[in-house]
């Protein structure tokens, strides 16, 4: 194959998810202005945290994600979206391995203002 | 049903798409900061246009979308993403009815700087 003059291949979400298996580690798959599209595999419970400066969009690709909020749970299946508003505490959990797509400004940390040992910067995928 | 104190229902993309049938008309289904998540049904060819101030993200939900660029086509199937860079002319087309999800800043017009009779503001869905 010769290199195209412009990157004209689409990004296949399933192909990107097949490139890694570690949990709760966000991979960047596309950029939109100063936002990043990321994917992650999750299973079990994350940590309660909030993002002080930004909303956070979750889209479930496969599996089932519960976004625990202080006043109730949001349960998302494949093809479902939820936007956690800026400053709202949340704790994602999944009883089965679940693949999610996330959208938020570049540099947003997975644990928000909570920090702690699960904090990881997003890693680009080829 | 009683009204929840917080909107805790996820947004189901397929349910939103089932609420309308007109082509090339964007419906807003979620907001993320000053960005909008929109869905549309497309069939046939749109118009060549560009967005001078923003990238534009396309995600195909069902069907097949060709994003014509001046130096080649990008063909997207379900679960595939392409981001048209700011200022790059493009013309979407679909040989079959195709459902897409779009993401861009609020107020971005579908025809960008081209204008013309197909120009429509996005309409919110309930």
TrEMBL record, chains A, B:
Pfam families, sorted: Cupin_2
Gene Ontology molecular function: isomerase activity
All residue ranges annotated as the Cupin type-2 domain in the record: 43-101
Keyword annotations: Isomerase
Family matches, as Gene3D superfamilies: Jelly Rolls
Superkingdom: Bacteria
Protein name: Mannose-6-phosphate isomerase, cupin superfamily
């Amino acid at each position: 194959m010769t290199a195209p003059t412009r990157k004209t291949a689409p990004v296949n979400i399933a192909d990107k998810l097949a490139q890694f298996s570690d949990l709760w580690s966000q991979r960047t798959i596309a950029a939109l202005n100063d936002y990043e599209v990321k994917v992650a595999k999750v299973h079990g419970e994350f940590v309660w945290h909030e993002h002080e400066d930004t909303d956070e969009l979750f889209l479930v690709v496969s599996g089932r994600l519960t976004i625990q909020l202080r006043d109730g749970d949001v349960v998302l299946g494949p093809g479902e979206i939820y936007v956690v508003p800026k400053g709202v505490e949340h704790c994602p959990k999944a009883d089965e391995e679940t693949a999610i797509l996330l959208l938020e400004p570049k540099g947003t940390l997975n644990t928000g203002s909570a920090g702690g040992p699960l904090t990881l910067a997003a890693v680009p995928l080829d």
